[in-house]
Design goal:
The complex is a heterodimer of chains A (about 150) and B (about 725). By secondary structure, chain A is of the alpha+beta class. Chain A has a single domain, classed as Alpha-Beta Plaits (2-Layer Sandwich). In chain A, strand 2 and strand 3 form a beta hairpin. Chain A is globular, with a radius of gyration of 16 Å. Chain B has about 725 residues and is of the alpha+beta class. Chain B contains 29 helices and 17 strands. In chain B, strand 16 and strand 17 form a beta hairpin. The longest helix of chain B has 27 residues. Classes of the chains: A alpha+beta (about 150), B alpha+beta (about 725). At the A-B interface, helix 3 and helix 5 of A face helix 7 of B. Bound molecules: iron/sulfur cluster (2 copies).
Chain lengths: ~150, ~725
């Protein structure tokens, strides 16, 4: 199963509570540019919420140092001790959910901690679970195909 | 296989050094190691050295110049191997930033060779605290140089007597021996060679990287010019560096956020465009195979032809299936162009490792052409096996391919036979015969050793020992200055003939690749235009070597709107990226013109290095005729229409009244005359005399006014050297 932050654009009113919670929790400041959950203003009172779906795992496949791994919960995590800050993961993320802040050494992303979901006044965010898919398993198959057989 | 631990390596000498972070791309010191006297010393980098030589190949050549005499031979103890990185090297954001530049006096050419190589060694060495590593002397015992960049120690270690030499075994053993634990494996990089390099001047150096996904060591090659032969002659078994802790700003950039910005821009361009452009992420440089075959440029049978109906059997889509997919196969962190592919679990059919399953690094284009089509080998397995054995024995696939194709042609022409080869059948296409040459080389059987001496030596040997026709041998031995030509057909592109033979080190395509501009798109119709291109591109590409950069992310990926620029061949947006990146790291401003000037200084210095050693005359810059036009009647007939047309339109004769011998003769005279005019134009554009010597005025103008450069130029012009 994959744990992830489920978003519902139709409920979002753009109050930016989630970005404040996220960036304060992880960066000690209220700054939407440092929030893993992003609120995009589409105009006419409509908003689009962007957070990692934990499923495509293109970043896991791309990371040269294997700093990005999949936790038991299915959540994609970055290990800062291994990250060399190349930002390849940022470039391959198809939805822009892998983020970085200029001058910071490491990228950051949503790890489905649920802090924002708790505070969202409109229930636009929630922690949910979903099944693994062919796509979500692809990265592991690539490795299995090339790894040296253990003696 | 037995394993080794640190205890197995006897310490011969040891020195500690002060750890300091890299500042703005530089350490401002280099490391000197003499394996003969067991001396280990730091050398400061002066501001003049930085200003004039920049880094990388510039530092390498400067150190090599100072460390050797004009008469130093490749196997004299004072010959050096210098590995140098450059200020941009090691940043993890901009694709293609992990290259090391290796220089030495080449056993093939007797002049400096430079080779650009990936792998983790260079960046780790830089973060360990040095801008270059200078190796000199000859060891008494098999020696390993070990640098621990976290502890600040340098050791000379004695290699255990039973430690193997072939790279795929040695690099793996040493990586495990020097890593503290499993997690530390990726922090170790090894430079090694192989048993072939002990006997052959085609010997190369392998630079390793630990591949976490494959759980094994991969290698990239400093291939050209026989540096591996020098390495083994010094009884250097390996170099090992260990450095843990690479991070986004290990390079100490003046503006790290700007480095991120420029890097991310290119990452995004690659992610979006690569699939529509070169497919480097899937095929690596092997994407070129069918393009070259289609344009009559893929070397076939010792460059006799440029095309064959069998071409598609080794086309890119064949390689794409064999190469493992969806892996971040960069030769350094952050290279999303990721051309460093491999074939996994490949079962060998010949030689000492027969039956073993191995990981083959490559094939790159040059290898697939060199030991493939050029030998008339269209069996991908054969190409992979030759690729593997060349690498592990420490033999350059380009030189080996060109040498073996020469031998196969000599076999076909009846100059050599099975008696001469020790029973090896060198018919076109017999890859097992080619593999046997390699195996016989490491076993030091007479023909293996002889074949390993390279094309220049063999062509002269066949004249003196076998009575071969001297002119024919000269014509079909594809080398310049002693270095084997790399794998593009240059016959129909005068500019590329210059791109190959008006080079400092010999015919390697890394200075200029002008075939498409010249032959296909006809952008260089005049001698002046060709000369301008033979000024700009070699200078521009030299810059990669000063910085520790890879050439591929410059034009094997292009911005979607590149064609809208005035000079799309230069990829102007990427040129600007490089200037911005240099400024972001070093804090120094740089314009595209300034970039060319940095290179021009070093390029001219390298020319003067050749001159200092008695070379660098105009006469040293001529191609063998095979690189210029058809040597044999069947080459003429294969492209009769093209050549007849040239006789009619360019030469003004009527081919229908001429014998093929007459036609070959007039074509030859015409083309060699064209080449002379090209040399005149290029030398003039480069600010050189008509004998190819940079003038003192030109040197002053470009700021390469260090005393040794001016003195050398004056001495040559006065006829003293
Ligand atoms: S920035 Fe870090 S996590 Fe992302 S791909 Fe590079 S090394 Fe991996
Ligand atoms: S393009 Fe290829 S050779 Fe160049 S740096 Fe990237 S992986 Fe290495």
């Amino acid at each position: 199963m994959i744990k992830y932050l489920k978003t519902d654009d139709s409920k979002c009113v753009g109050c930016m509570t989630c970005t404040a919670v996220c960036s304060t929790l992880y960066f000690k400041e209220d700054n939407p540019a440092k929030s893993a959950i992003q609120v995009q203003d589409k105009g006419r009172g409509e908003f689009h919420l962007v957070a990692c779906d934990q499923e495509c795992r293109k970043c896991v496949q791309e990371c040269p140092t294997q700093a990005i791994t999949v936790a038991k919960t299915g959540v994609v995590m970055i290990n800062k001790n291994l990250c060399v800050g190349c930002l390849a993961c940022v470039a391959v993320c198809p939805i822009g959910a892998m983020r970085f802040f200029p001058g910071h050494r490491y990228p950051f992303k949503c790890i489905a901690c649920g802090a924002c979901a708790k505070e969202c006044p409109k229930d636009a965010l929630s922690i949910a679970e979903k099944e693994e898919t062919a796509e979500s398993r692809a990265w592991a198959e690539v490795i299995a195909a090339v790894a040296q057989p253990k003696e | 296989m037995s394993t080794y631990t640190r205890k197995d390596f006897n310490v011969l000498a040891e020195q500690h050094y002060e750890l300091r972070p890299v500042k703005r791309g530089y350490n401002m010191r280099t490391l000197y190691v003499n394996v003969g006297t067991r001396t280990i010393a730091e050398k400061p980098v002066s501001e003049t050295m930085k200003a004039k030589f920049v880094g990388g190949k510039g530092f390498g050549l400067k150190l090599l110049w100072d460390g050797t005499r004009p008469t130093t031979k490749w196997n004299d103890p004072e010959n050096e191997i210098v590995i140098a990185m450059g200020p941009i090297c090691g940043n993890t954001n901009y694709p293609g930033s992990g290259k090391s530049l290796v220089v030495s006096i080449s056993p093939l050419t007797d002049i400096p060779i430079d080779s650009n190589v990936g792998g983790f060694f260079g960046p780790f060495l830089k973060f360990s605290g040095f801008d270059a590593l200078e190796l000199q002397g000859k060891a008494e015992k098999e020696t390993i140089v070990f640098i621990d960049g976290n502890e600040g120690t340098i050791q000379l270690l004695e290699a255990p007597a039973d430690l193997p030499t072939d790279t795929h075994v040695l690099a793996e053993l040493l990586t495990h021996a020097f890593a503290h634990d499993e997690k530390d494996l990726q922090n170790v990089s090894v430079v090694s060679s192989g048993r072939g390099a002990e006997v052959s001047p085609l010997g190369l150096l392998n630079f390793s990287l630990y591949d976490k996904r494959r759980q094994g060591v991969r290698v990239k090659q400093a291939g050209r010019g026989g540096i591996g032969h020098v390495f083994r002659d010094k009884k250097l078994k390996a170099l090992v560096v260990r450095y843990a802790g690479v991070h986004q700003d290990s390079n100490g950039a003046a503006n790290p956020a700007e480095v991120q910005r420029i890097g991310l821009k290119l990452h995004r361009e690659i992610v979006v465009n690569d699939d529509r452009q070169c497919k480097m992420r899937r095929q690596g440089t092997a994407h070129l195979m069918e393009v070259m075959n289609d344009y009559d440029l893929l070397p076939t049978k010792n460059h006799r032809y440029g095309q064959d109906p069998k071409g598609p059997e080794i086309a890119s889509w064949v390689w794409e299936k064999l190469l493992s997919q969806h892996l971040p196969d960069g030769c350094w962190y952050g290279c999303t162009l990721a051309c460093a592919h491999a074939v996994d679990h490949f079962e060998l059919q010949t030689g000492p490792y027969k039956g073993q399953k191995v990981c083959v690094d490559g094939p790159e284009y040059e290898t697939a052409a060199g030991v493939g089509s050029n030998l008339y080998v269209y069996d991908p397995h054969g190409i992979l096996e030759l690729n593997f054995y060349c690498d592990t024995y420490g033999i350059d696939t380009i030189s080996f391919g060109t040498t073996t194709s020469f031998l196969m042609e000599c076999w076909e022409l009846g100059i050599i036979n099975a008696e001469f080869t020790g029973g090896i059948d060198l018919s076109w296409g017999n890859w097992k015969g080619a593999a046997q040459i390699l195996h016989d080389m490491v076993e030091r059987k007479p023909f293996g050793v002889l074949a390993g001496k390279g094309v220049k030596f063999l062509s002269q040997y066949f004249v003196s020992e076998l009575g071969a026709d001297p002119q024919l041998m000269k014509d079909i031995a594809l080398h310049g200055k002693g270095l084997e030509q790399s794998q593009y057909i240059s016959k129909e592109s005068l500019a590329q003939q210059g791109g190959y033979y008006l080079t400092n080190k010999g015919p390697q395509h890394d200075e200029a690749w002008l075939i498409f501009m010249d032959m296909v798109n006809n952008h260089l119709p005049t001698f002046e235009k060709k000369a301008e291109a033979l000024h700009y591109f070699p200078m521009f590409r030299t810059w990669f070597g000063l910085q520790g950069l890879c050439k591929l992310p410059w034009n094997d990926i292009e911005p979607a709107d590149n064609h809208k620029y005035a000079e799309p061949n230069k990829v102007p947006e990427h040129v600007q990226n490089y200037c911005d990146l240099y400024t972001a790291i070093t804090g120094e401003p740089l314009t595209p013109e300034g970039l060319i000037l940095q290179s021009e200084r070093v390029y001219n210095f390298q020319r003067l290095f050749n001159i200092r050693r008695g070379y660098g005359h105009r006469k040293d810059d001529y191609p063998p005729y095979r690189a210029v036009g058809p040597v044999l009647p069947d080459e003429y007939f294969a492209r009769q229409e093209r050549y007849d047309k040239q006789i009619r339109e360019k030469i003004g004769l009527d081919p229908s009244t001429m014998t093929v011998e007459e036609k070959l003769k007039v074509i030859r005279e015409y083309r060699m005359k064209q080449y002379e005019s090209l040399v005149d134009a290029v030398f003039a554009r480069r600010g050189w005399t008509m004998d190819g010597c940079p003038t003192p005025e030109h040197l002053r103008k470009i700021g390469m006014d260090v005393p040794e450069a001016i003195e050398t130029a004056e001495a040559r012009i006065a006829g003293r050297i």
